[in-house]
Amino acid sequence: MIRRTTTAALTTACAALLLTACGQTTTATETDKSPKSASAGCEGVKTSTGPVSLTDAYGNKVELDKPASRVAVLEWQQTEDLLSLCMDPVAVADAKGYRTWDSAEELGKDATDVGLRGEPNLETLFGTDPDLIIVEAYTPDDEILKQLAKYDVPVLATKGADAKDPVGNMVTTFEMIAEATGREARAEDVVGDFEDKLAASKKAVADADAAGTEFVYYDGSIDGANVAIRPFGQGSLIGELGEEIGLKNAWTGEVDPAYGLGQTDIEGMTTVGDATFFHTGTVDPAGDINAELAKNKAWKSIPAVSEDRTHAFPERIWTFGGPRSAEQVLDAYVDLLK
Questions:
Q1: Axis crossing angle, helix 166-181 with helix 323-337, rounded to the nearest 10
Q2: Fewer CB under 10 Å: which end of the chain, C or N?
Q3: How far apart are CA 311 and CA 309, in angstroms?
Q4: How far is CA 108 from its chain centroid?
Q5: What is the pLDDT of residues 87-117, one digit of tens each?
Q6: The Fe/B12 periplasmic-binding domain covers which part of the protein (predicted)?
Q7: Residues 247 and 104 in one domain
Q8: 236 shares its domain with 305
Q9: What distance in Å separates the CA atoms of residue 139 and residue 272, rounded to the nearest whole number?
């Protein structure tokens, strides 16, 4: 089951505590008439107007006189999240990469590209006059946080991933951004859509007699003649989504503690028995790993490959995305298992 606190639950808890120590205290709302993202359902979205006080993923207080409206984002999941909240960022990192890998929300042409996600051009970034910068950090003393701390602009640090609860971390990150931008009502709608999709997908898997299907989702990279395969194991977002709807993740090898990602070669993939394979349908500009794998005799001998049970997800589904990407993941599992 999903282990998380939703916006609705937070609102209920705050009411019980007379709105004390619950982050943001707002009563008034207004209809935001500023330009919106292309996200569905953005007409007449409501925005809170009161001051914002919240704690980010690493315990840092973020204080704003009013909800942020000029937001710069330095990671793709959080860019997607902001667009799902009906806000266009003033600045993003690696816009071309986002458009290559993430189709859950359309990124408009007006956002300023500030360079690489891990190494943004700070002069360009602050030239966009943001009133909030959203980053993805991995530790409380992440280098990007040290750099941004030198400037007088609030920074919201989100956790890159959490293999202990990947779905919960994804939703918590989304709701944190909603609180900072006064879009809690919109967030409640989006999270509700995701929960509905999750329930419908679980039913669809059961109706198709596919519950219990063992699977491995993977991507990978090519370095010369060497192929490195990355299975999404226990604790990965995409693996957890599969298990939430009744499938069984067959990759039990060692994974990293944040993203739940493993590392193996073709021989390692021969150990997963009869598991069905899924993989990204986006061809990495650096090289097509699946085209390379198709040439290998050992790969062809794996049951999932020899029995034509290796399925590509649709292109541009970001496997580290927000609620809207998660819905695309769920649709892909259901459609490919029919």
A1: 140
A2: N
A3: 6
A4: 19
A5: 999 999 999 999 999 999 999 999 999 999 9
A6: 70-338
A7: no
A8: yes
A9: 33
